[in-house]
Amino acid sequence: MLNSATQKQQTQQNDYYSVIAKGPMLDRVYSMRYRSYSAEGYIQENSSQKFIDEFDDKPNSICFLAYQQTKAIGSMRACVYDPSDKNSVVPVMEVFDEELRNNVGYDNIFVEMNKFVIDPTFQRKGGMHARLMLMGSVLNESLQRNATSVVVAVRTEHIRFYELFGGKVISGIKSYPHLSFKTVLMVCTGLEAADRMLRSKLRAA
Fold first, then answer.
1. What is the mean pLDDT of residues 75-99?
2. What is the extent of the structural domain holding 136?
């Protein structure tokens, strides 16, 4: 069980911080996802104005919320695969099973970084700081879980960004579940080095 200091992910700098979203806070996550994805036309509109999938209520899923002062500005989800848990499933396994099997292995703990959104009203007002902070939150969670790698399905135009933190492409282009864009699978195995790089960039932001 993570202690409260770890749960809060108190990466506070320039009025930015991130927390693990629980209870009513999850509504902010789902609403922000909806606004972000629908603004880009990646999902169909719905009356609830929330975007939730079948992995959100699983015990191996953790949602992070990024704030600037009191305003929620971004969100990311970490889905943990643990071979000791027979019910442990993460979204990329639906599409990139062969790539995971051949490059990561199902005998290791790994974490999928997904549902990465920045509120549309905040894209150019510190959005990069929020992105780095949320990535750092998932990396910290991965290190706490003794994961050997982090995997992420990204659009091709974002490959270079993840390469800065040690990410490597291990697949061709495929569709990602529930979203109308195509992605490639990337993996990062140097988690401590990636964490140091993120902290360095946050200090400079």
1. 95
2. 4-204
